[in-house]
Amino acid sequence: MQGLDQIKDVLKNFNIYGATVGVMDIVEIFIIAAMLYFILKWMKNTKAWALLRGLLVIGVLLILADFLHMTTILWLARNVLSFAVIALIVVLQPEIRKALEDLGKNRIIGAFFSLNTVKDTEQITPATINEIVKACSEMAKVRTGSLIVIERRETLQSFEETGITVDGAVTNQLLINIFEKNTPLHDGAVIIRGNRIASATCYLHLSTNTSISKELGTRHRAGLGVSEETDAVTVIVSEETGRMALAVDGLLERNVTSDVLRTRLGELLLKPEDEEEHSRRIGRRRQKKA
Fold first, then answer.
1. Distance separating alpha carbons of residues 231 and 211, to the nearest angstrom
2. Rounded Cα distance, 148 and 132, in Å
3. Which residue of 25, 138, 139, 160 lies most exposed, with the fewest beta carbons within 10 A?
């Protein structure tokens, strides 16, 4: 008991640079640290993460401007800052509203106890890519429209939540069944994470690019839109023409063949060592066809 009393006395009279830090100060520090952690965790799953990186770049440039005594730039920054805060709130309004809704539903508090149960996403394999290509090729033959979004580094959780959870292994039969006409899951996009179909019937934001060809429909605009907002790779099969397209980094590659699609997916999704093995398999497959 005497040792415990001594520890209490040390905590009550803890002194840093002449300032006394009490127990409640330490508790307050932990609360602030937890708040910052959850804010950063929330930002990572929204557009705010990209905005934060942009703000950090601007901050570095302003520090450099201050060091070089660029007074005009500093004056502009001080006058624009007040408007920038309002602009950020407007831009992030949907994400802020959703975060407050999650807080009201105790999702954030519940997530605190499940942080250690989160598993790393399994790396996509060449076999999964082959299943995707096979499914798209079969759907293209019969003109079954499809929209497949493959997650890479940036999370697609916000889009996944708009659909129905599937959590099934990626097979060409399952993908074809999902997009079969007049079935409950055929409308919307399928999201693939690793080697599993995470969700189906997901809603995506349409691209606002005015230079897109007028002959492209909603499916292509949605696939292009998600590639503009995230680093995801999207495969689209046209219901009207049966042609396949690939959207990545805000660019649309149209009229791709099965071999081109398989090669491009390998380049975009596989690790270097897996990509080499994938390329060798493609080469052997082409030799057999020849």
1. 20
2. 9
3. 25
Contact 235, 150 (CB under 8 A): yes
- The predicted pLDDT at position 15 comes to 54
Fold entry, domain 126-289:
YojJ-like (1 (3.40.1700)
Q: Which two tokens stand for residue 99?
A: 């975060």
pLDDT digits (tens, 9 = 90+) for 52-84: 777 788 888 888 888 888 888 888 888 877 777
Residue at token pair 């995506």: 204
Which residue ranges in the chain fall short of pLDDT 70?
Answer: 1-22, 42-49, 92, 94-121, 272-290
And the tokens for 260? 């081109």
Q: Which residues pair with 19 in a beta bridge?
A: 16
> For residue 28, what pLDDT is reported?
85
Collapse the DSSP code of 200 into the 3-class scheme (helix H, G, I; strand E, B; otherwise coil) and give the result: strand
Q: DSSP letter string over 32-60?
A: HHHHHHHHHHHHHTSTHHHHHHHHHHHHH
Q: How far apart are CA 58 and CA 46, in angstroms?
A: 20
3-state SS, residue 187 = coil
Q: What burial class does residue 92 get, using C-beta atoms within 10 Å of its C-beta: 0-12 exposed, 13-18 middle, 19+ buried?
A: middle
Spatial distance between the Cα atoms of 175 and 135, rounded to a whole number of angstroms: 6
Domain boundaries, the chain: 2-117, 126-289
**pLDDT tens-digit series, residues 135-183:** 999 999 999 999 999 999 888 988 998 999 999 999 999 999 999 988 8
Phi, psi (deg, nearest 5) at residue 118: -70, 130
